[in-house]
From TrEMBL:
Start-end of DNA-binding region: 32-51
InterPro entries: Homeodomain-like_sf, HTH-type_TetR-like_transc_reg, HTH_TetR, Tet_transcr_reg_TetR-rel_C_sf, TetR_C
SUPFAM superfamilies registered for this protein in UniProt: Homeodomain-like, Tetracyclin repressor-like, C-terminal domain
Top-level taxon in the UniProt lineage: Bacteria
Entry annotated with the keyword DNA-binding: yes
Keywords in alphabetical order: DNA-binding, Transcription, Transcription regulation
Entry protein name: TetR family transcriptional regulator
Lineage: Bacteria, Bacillati, Actinomycetota, Actinomycetes, Pseudonocardiales
Annotated ranges, domain HTH tetR-type: 9-69
Species name: Lentzea atacamensis
Pfam family, one: TetR_N
Length: 182
């Protein structure tokens, strides 16, 4: 009996799971197709045939595992951010801290990964915060000249760096955001 093709949904899930596990365990520099092939019970040649680079394989694995993110409208910027961050904190079946570190490391070393990450992964997270910022500016909660990009980067960075802490979402919203916006 032959192997299930890589484009079958269950095989893709298996390969993508192996990709994210390997990235979290060894980082980007030591990540390679041999490690993924062994873990996913696939040939290295079949991986390269479908994904010409590790950056593209990692990006596809991340895109396939993006959580469904809400676009809340809770009436205030702080509560919108609280709901968005809570959705990011939902338990995931992967080592998210290890994956984020691998992505950061790889993005410094590989321009292709940095571009793919920004285009496909970062945007999925920043879009929701951008909508919340735009709504807050329209309601007068945030100044019109506020640099949304810096605020969004600060929120994401703080969340990632402190994601292992208990109650990180509430501490960001109540301890950082509310005092800043009054």
């Amino acid at each position: 009996m032959g192997r299930t093709p890589l484009d079958a949904p269950e095989r893709l899930r298996e390969v993508f799971s192996a990709v994210l596990d390997v990235l979290a365990e060894v980082g980007y520099a030591r990540f390679n197709m041999d490690l993924v092939a062994g873990r996913a019970r696939a040939s290295k040649a079949s991986l390269y045939q479908r994904w010409p680079s590790k950056a593209r394989l990692i990006t596809d694995a991340l895109k396939a595992n993006l959580p469904v993110l809400p676009q809340p409208d809770e009436g205030t910027f702080a509560e919108d951010v609280r709901q968005i961050l809570r959705s990011w904190g939902e338990p995931m079946p992967f080592d998210t801290a290890g994956i984020f570190l691998g992505l950061l490391e790889g993005s410094r070393q590989d321009a292709d990964l940095a571009c793919l990450r920004e285009e496909h992964i970062d945007r999925a997270y920043t879009e929701h915060l951008q909508v919340a910022v735009d709504r807050a500016k329209a309601r007068g909660e945030l100044p019109e000249d506020l640099d949304a990009g810096i605020l969004i980067t600060a929120l994401i960075s703080t969340f990632v760096l402190r994601s292992a802490e208990q109650g990180v979402t509430d501490s960001i919203v109540d301890g950082l955001l509310r005092p800043l916006i009054g």
